[in-house]
Each structure stands twice: as C-alpha cells, then as structure tokens.
Amino acid sequence: MSATSWAELAGRTLARQFPTLPVANPPTALDVAATLAAIGPVQAQTARSPFLALAARLPGIEHDTIADAYENLQIVRGSNLRGTVHTCIPSDHPLLEVATRTGQRSLWQRTIKPAHATLEQIWAGIEEYAHEEYRTPAELLAHLIGWLDRNDPGHAAQLSDTAGRYFAFGHGGLLRRPLTGGWAGQGAAGYRTATALLGDRTAVLADPDSALTDLVARHLAAFGPAGRRDIAWWSGVGLRAVDAALERLAERIELIAYTAPDGEVCVDLADAPGPVELPGVRLLPEFDALLCGFAPPARARFVDPDHYRRLWSPDNGLLAAPILVDGRLTGYWRLSGNGRRRTAQITWFPRTRRPRTAESDEQLAAVERAYGVEITGVQIERG
User: Fold this and answer.
1) Helices and strands of the chain, counted as H and E runs
2) Core-most of 26, 43, 66, 90, by most CB within 10 Å?
C-alpha cells in the first residue's frame, strides 16, 4: 500500500471520467452508450445533467443523438441509487436495482411496516401493474395503496403524502421516461417495469451478493481509486455490505491499494489506467460524477474545501454546476432564461485560474449542441 496525493488520485479518476475512446464523426448513439459504459451512471434528477455530462466528455455530440439513445434503450433512466434518478447503460440497471433494494430496504420496512406481505411481494405487485404501459407517479401510488389495503390492511395510511409517492416507484425495478416534453426537460414522468423493456433479469436479482460485487467493480472502473466510504455513499449500500463485496472482488481479481492524504485506504483495479492531466475547461452538470462518485471528504481530490462549500448548499442539498479547470473544480456556471434562447454566466473563484474566453466558448458551443439551446450572451466573472 502506497501513500499518494489528492492530485494523483484525481489524475487516476480523470483517466476514467474523461476517457479517450474511438468515436465516429459525428458521434452516434453507440458512442453515447460507450461513453456511459466508461464513466458509469450519471445522476439525472435534473434531466439536463446527462446531456451536459456528455457535452463535456463527448465533443460534437448532438441533442437528438442523445435523445435517440434513450428512445432506443441504448441508455436508460430510472430512480435507484440513494433514491435519486440515474441514467446508465442497460446492463448496469439491474445492478443499480439490487443496490437500491439493499440500501433502501430498511427505509421501506420502517415506513410501510408490512405485517403480512413481504417487500418482494410489494415490489412484484408494482412491477405487474406497470408491466404493459407507463404509469404516472399518481397512478403508481394509488395502486400501491390499493394493493396494501387488499393484501396487508392497515399499512397504507402513511403513504398518502409526498414521501409516500416515492415508494410507488423508488425500489429500482422501473424505467422512467418523459410523458411530456423531451428527455432534457423536467416534464411529467412515467414509469414502466424494466423487465418488460430490457428482458428477464431474474439471474441478477436472485444473486444480490454477486450483483453487489459487480457493482463495486463498476464503481472502481469508473471512479477509482476509491475508498469503502466512497462506494457506500455512491451506491447507498451500507459499509458492511460494501466491505463484503470488496472481499469477494479481491478473491476474483487483483486489486491495488493507496493511502489517501486523509488516511483512508483507496482501492483500485490492478489494470486501471495511470493518472492523466486534463488541461483546459469543462462545463459540468449539477451532481457531476466528480463529486457524486465520492463521499464528501474524498471530494478534496477535485475541489478545495472552501470552494466546495461554495458549490454545495447544505440547506437544500443542491450542488451548483461546477467548472473544471485544469483538473480542478474552481467555480460554477449557469444558464439563464427559458426556452431555447439562454445566456450563460461563468464564475471562477478567487486565487484560481480564470477560464479563457476561447476555452469557455468551445465548451458553450458543445452545450448548445448537446442541450439543444442557443446561447445569446456570455458573462465571465470572478466571484
């Protein structure tokens, strides 16, 4: 086990998060899927986030190409890890479902308190109801309440609020699509059973230990080197289950370990790429993987603590969309306005490098193509 710096850990993660892949010109939906296969699931509770994440990582990608990848199920969206929405490749989805069922199980049990039905029976009832068509959250909640009234009377009253609405679609077994508007908007969502669209996943769901081991391997491939707390935070699975999965993975393949500056042990795949430098500017989405792939203390590999406090609001749990300058998160950006025409504001923190106009313009052009907007003005300021 070797001691290493935050900079080296960051460089090793950047090699995974900004991979050099063979890409068509212009990039295709297959390139979208290949990029997500490399960088892992993208948090998508703001629907634009996958479009912006791809704009920063797949130069030249067009909005319609990303939307086509969704429509053709080359990438999929669902409510899963930590109870949040993620976009991933189809083969990742059952792994995220197992993590969600494992990590959220106590919450379901504590909230619903079923006396006769098992959680597996409750989840199966939801999936049967949503098997043939997309269902709205309101329809799913009404079904869940009715199902509990019939099969476990007296255990549905606590579901008649906003939190209860989540339990109708939040077990990880459903896919989500917009029923109004496009894939990059926050239109009304519908949910349908993943098995109906992606095929049978019984073998994965029947062996949760193996699925969690595969998920840990996926995390390391996309975000490594990473500590046990990073994997637990990202997956929503408890440390005991993560430790067991790491032990199983170490029996399967060779792992290497590093000691981070804070003393945490970070593990990685033995055949992982070495560290890279990433010069220039990238405009990242809210909840980008460079932050959400790690527990808060380990985010120091990419952002100074004082700057992190500027990016993250503890009052509402929201993260500003960060800018990545020469491999460090040194500011934030946002688009103002509604509809297609927007203005951009880029703010860099004091005592960091100012993003050059040409760098920012190049990235904003990528945002225009991927997000499907027209940026009519740009302001770059220190803040």
Assistant:
1) 17, 16
2) 66
Residue ranges in the chain whose pLDDT is less than 70: 1, 157, 160-163
Cα–Cα distance, 184 to 152 (Å, whole number): 39
Return d(Cα 176, Cα 117) in angstroms, integer. Answer: 26
**CA quadruple 23, 28, 30, 34: dihedral sign:** positive
Structure-token match 């927007």, residue found:
342
Q: SS in 3 state form for 118-132?
A: CHHHHHHHHHHHCCC
Sequence-distant (≥ 6) Cβ neighbours of residue 145 within 8 angstroms:
156, 159, 160
Beta strands (DSSP E) in 163-238 are: 174-178, 189-193, 226-227
- Statement: the pTM of the whole predicted model exceeds 0.85: yes
Q: Render 272-316 in DSSP notation, one character per residue.
A: --------SEEEPPTT-HHHHTS-GGGGGGTS-HHHHHHHEETTT
- Looking at the DSSP bridge assignments, the partners of residue 189 are 178
Residue 333 DSSP class = E
Nearest Cα neighbor of 346 from 378, 368, 377, 311 is 378
* Annotated domain spans of the chain: 2-18+220-269, 29-204, 281-382
**pLDDT tens for each residue of 18-58:** 999 999 999 999 999 999 999 999 999 999 999 999 999 99
